[in-house]
Specification:
The protein is an alpha+beta fold. It has one domain: Beta-Lactamase (2-Layer Sandwich). The chain is built from 5 helices and 6 strands; from the N terminus they run βαββααβββαα. A 6-stranded antiparallel beta sheet has the order 1-4-5-6-2-3, with helices on both faces.
Length: 177
């Protein structure tokens, strides 16, 4: 039996074992990523066929990795991810560091692990909604490489579980005040 986190009782946790992640989307993408890893080489962007995981495309974030200095630039942000995090496309992770929704420093560290160690990184975190309510979500980040060794892209899947965007955004009435 897998030792999964109860998303309604846990604190934020980063660099988790996959067995602690309950998200079907993250588990599904991880199986896909493992299938396209060949002979110890990291997969390339071209190895990923979106047709294999259409249902999770709205939750996908594709990021360019720059190494000197280390920076993460969002290349593509799925519609569901944009709904919760704003449109990140074309922006650097350190430019959104003032976000009240999630910790940019924690995610930068996860991208660094994925890029330097060439392995997936999984996390469990919370978004704080209106009136201080906490809502859990889970993330997986997988490294990609144009040459099979040096990570130059990462693909992430964020599963917001039962969270709705209305839970983290004040209503139009409240925004007027």
């Amino acid at each position: 039996m897998m030792n999964m986190i109860n998303p309604y009782e846990a604190e934020s946790r980063f660099d988790l074992a996959l067995s602690e992640i309950s998200s079907d989307m993250i588990q599904q993408f991880h199986r896909h990523w493992l299938q396209i890893c060949a002979n110890g080489r990291l997969p390339q962007r071209a190895d990923i066929d979106p047709a294999n995981f259409k249902r999770i495309l709205p939750n996908v974030i594709l990021s360019d990795i720059e190494h000197d200095p280390f920076r993460v630039r969002y290349r593509l942000c799925g519609t569901k991810a944009s709904e919760f995090c704003g449109n990140l496309t074309g922006r650097y992770l350190d430019e959104v560091a003032t976000s009240d929704v999630w910790s940019a420093a924690a995610y930068l560290r996860q991208y660094q692990i994925a890029a330097t160690e060439g392995r997936p990184v999984f996390s469990f975190d919370w978004m704080v909604g209106q009136f201080g309510a906490r809502y859990p979500f889970q993330t997986g980040i997988w490294p990609l490489s144009s040459d099979g060794r040096t990570v130059d892209l990462c693909i992430a899947v964020e599963d917001y579980l039962k969270l709705r965007s209305a839970d983290v955004k004040p209503s139009a009435v409240l925004q007027a005040y």
